Amino acid sequence: MDNSGLKTLCSHNKKRHYLFLCTGIPIFHIITLFFICDRSLAQEQMFKAPVVVSRIIQMDVRQPVKMVGTVFPLRESIVACEIEGLVLEFPVKRGDYVKKGHILANLRTTSLEIQLKGAEADDRLALIEYERAKELYEGEAISNSELDEFEAKLIAQEARVEGIEDDIGKCTITAPFDGRITEEYTEVGQWLQKGDRVVSMLQSDYVKVRVPVPEKYIQYMKVGDESNVTFFALGGVTQTGNIVHIVPQADERARTFPVFVKIENKDEVIKSGMFAEATFETGSLLSATMILKDGIVRRGDMEFVYLSVDGKAAEVPVKTGIAHKNLIQIIGDVKPGIDVIVRGNERLLNGQDIQVTGRMDIITIED
Question: What pTM was estimated for this model as a whole?
Answer without folding.
Answer: 0.62
